Amino acid sequence: MDTLRESFRYGTSPLTSPSLSPPYNAYLFGSHISKSLSPLLHGILFRSLGLSWKFHLVQTTDKGKFLDKVNSSETIGVSITMPNKVTFGLLLEDFTDAAQVIGAVNTSFVRLDSTGKRRYIGTNTDCVGIREVIVQYDSTAVATSKGKPAMVVGGGGAARSAVYALWKWFSPSEIYIVNRLKSEVDDIVKHFTAAMPGIQLRYVADIAIAQSILAPSIIVSTIPDYPPSEPGEILCWQICEKIFGKVEKGLLVDMCYMPSPGTRLVKAANKAGWRTILGTEVLVRVCVAQQVLWTERLPNQQGVSEAIAAITQPQSAAKL
């Protein structure tokens, strides 16, 4: 509940009814979200808490439409996905430390200032989802990963959330970064060296480096599940295979779940003897982290289990 406790640094609760009975609304703003799993998951989680709140999709990049919904007294929170994470995030009134360090907003929640005015706070719950899915899978992970290397595959916004989560909560000796473009890795290294002083990041640029380094205890992959075709993509795949082939085995968290959570990377890791966590489970934990901020309640574990079960069945491709 540290996420909720820290949220009150930005103001007091907007929830005035002990029963939380008002029909509050939450929204997802983004492009190409018609098949999003968020309404399903949030609906299950709301009902598990006895709430009649609703979750809606708003497929738009229009800042005016975003502000219209956010400024409604019936809006309790919003989720923001691509391509709005930066542009819509800038419209909010304050940001949590996580959002500032990561440089991207995927969630907004409401708090009241000293005069009772609503304030819209931007945060990043992707990093919380990564943390929670790992510790729920292995309660010893924080202790056993301390002082050992970790690894992130990818170079986009989700990769930055993974770097933040691993360094902040799992205390690795260093974080390897595997990515098809060196320029993206350079940007990540530059950004986090300034934002998280003392962080140790290493670009794994080729097979020789992959061969020489220690096996990471945790890997978080953030890349799409497409067959590698470009030279950089092929090299990334070969590096991952080399890492999986090391004697020491660890845990792979694959954030990708399209078109299926059983990605090529998950299958390769399983075959090599690694433990794996699917992207759908990360997605549920991200939604739970959002709901903690909106409902100000601990997650209902039965509801979490129901949400996970609901998306382990074959689903159409979806995007959070």
From TrEMBL:
Signal peptide: none annotated. GO terms for biological process: chorismate biosynthetic process; shikimate metabolic process. This is Shikimate dehydrogenase substrate binding N-terminal domain-containing protein. Pfam families: Shikimate_dh_N. Residues 28-107 form the Shikimate dehydrogenase substrate binding N-terminal domain. It comes from Penicillium brasilianum. One of its GO terms (molecular function) is shikimate 3-dehydrogenase (NADP+) activity. PANTHER family: BIFUNCTIONAL 3-DEHYDROQUINATE DEHYDRATASE_SHIKIMATE DEHYDROGENASE, CHLOROPLASTIC, SHIKIMATE DEHYDROGENASE.
